[in-house]
Design goal:
Blueprint lengths: L3 H7 L7 E2 L5 H11 L3 E6 L2 E7 H9 L10 H4 L7 E2 L4 H11 L3 E6 L2 E7 H28 L1
Parallel strand pairs: 1-2, 4-5
Antiparallel strand pairs: 2-3, 5-6
């Protein structure tokens, strides 16, 4: 069983992408688009303050009929932010994300943010693990059939 810290280490994007609470909302949206991510960590220095997601933007601005002009990340970010420790299994993390209806979870070791794991990251990992198991079972069956 893999740990979420391992999933973070295997991600192509190694950089923590974050904004400060006072960042203009439009700048945060542009940053998400530029990096092709669905969430940004909201940090003051190295302290995690919250998370802002595309879902936050849609629900707090678009669906509410508000203009993003003049709004900051702090106006719509999710807080308190749910986090998981790096030694949580991917299976347990998926269960937590499903239960909390979240798509992004920061992964922390103590007070240090290791990264963000998305539901897509976890699904990709599960598919990879299942593919490996299927290949091993097929080899076993072929050896047993040829014996």
């Amino acid at each position: 069983m893999k740990l979420v810290r391992d999933v973070i280490q295997e991600k192509a994007l190694k950089e923590l992408i974050s904004v400060e609470p006072s960042t203009p909302l439009l700048s945060a949206a542009e940053l998400m688009t530029r990096w092709n991510v669905g969430s940004l960590l909201v940090m003051t220095g190295s302290t995690l303050q919250g998370i802002v997601t595309e879902r936050d933007y849609v629900r707090s601005v678009v669906a509410a009929g508000r203009s993003p002009i003049g709004l900051t990340v702090e106006d719509i970010m999710s807080r308190p932010v749910h986090v998981v420790p790096g030694d949580l299994s991917t299976e347990d993390c998926m269960g937590l994300m499903t239960h909390l209806r979240l798509r992004h979870l920061p992964v922390m070791e103590g007070f240090e943010v290791l990264g963000v794991v998305s539901i897509g990251d976890l699904v990709k990992d599960v598919i990879s693990e299942q593919t490996f198991v299927i290949e091993q079972l097929e080899r076993y069956i072929m050896r047993a059939a040829n014996a």
